[in-house]
Amino acid sequence: MTTNMAALIDVHPVPGIGVWREKRSKPFWGDWRMADSNPDTLPTPFDPTGPCPWCGRVSNFVVGQQVVLSWGSNFADRAVTALTCQGCKKGTAVVTNNLGNGLTWWPAPGAGILDPQVNESVASAYDEGMRSLTVGAFRAAAVMFRSALHLFVKDKGSAKAQNERHLKSALKHMKNDGDLHRSLWDWADHLNQLGNEGAHPEDYDDVTEAEATGLDKFVRHLIRHEYEMPAQLLRDQGLLQE
User: Fold this and answer.
1) If we measure between CA atoms, which residue out of 56, 183, 100 comes closest to residue 171?
2) How far is CA 19 from CA 5, 11, 64, 105, in A?
3) 120: which of 31, 76, 79, 89 is 20 to 30 A away, CA to CA?
4) How far apart are CA 128 and CA 123, in angstroms?
């Protein structure tokens, strides 16, 4: 389905001129087609499905007002769009490039949607990793997701796991000690970025988007399994006072 975005935006500011009105004869971003729906990726105007940065649920979004931020030679180079989650009804702003790819989201998804029983240091590191991921800083994201895992080991691991220098070995100790579910260990064992030695930034010279996203999913599921699900069970049993 080809859509003419010019019908949606005909008013945009031009520095030093004010407001310039034009009905463009070409589609807003060229002859683009609606992307295939992918509920695992953050929402954009062209794929308005995915996890909500506010409530954390996979949702459908209503595409709202769009504003051009900058222009290239023929088409909008950057634009910001308001998306409204049909679940929590809160709004998210997404900046897209001339191809319609999402560049950054506000609010950035992260610790703001985590259960309050998640370890504060783990949540903070995960939050910073998500903020890095949403702006394409994949090496920084990998560093922070690994930091979240190290902090998880310090919070939940045995003394033997805590004293282990290498993250992958520490997680293996936790699996052997019964402190980490086998399925989570199997997942960790297949993540390339968990195989690096040490926790130094120079270990992350080549971090791909897929590797950073893989770490994000693993850390998020670990948080869900090790913190949020037990906390919810205690609430349901009336045993958790907050």
Assistant:
1) 183
2) 18, 7, 20, 26
3) 89
4) 9
Can you give the pLDDT of all 242 residues of the chain as single tens digits?
Answer: 333 333 333 333 333 333 333 333 333 444 444 556 788 788 999 999 988 888 878 899 999 999 999 988 777 889 999 999 999 999 999 999 888 888 888 887 765 678 889 999 999 999 888 888 877 888 888 889 999 999 999 999 999 999 998 888 899 999 999 999 888 988 988 887 775 544 455 665 678 888 888 898 899 999 999 999 999 999 999 888 77
Neighbours of 4 (CB within 10 A): 13
CB atoms under 10 Å from CB of 141, counted, come to 27
Distance CA 91, CA 69 (A): 19
Yes or no: say if 50 and 43 are a contact pair by the CB < 8 Å rule.
Answer: yes
> Both tokens of residue 213?
């996203």
Q: Are 67 and 12 in contact (CB under 8 A)?
A: yes
- In angstroms, the CA 241 to CA 142 distance is 34
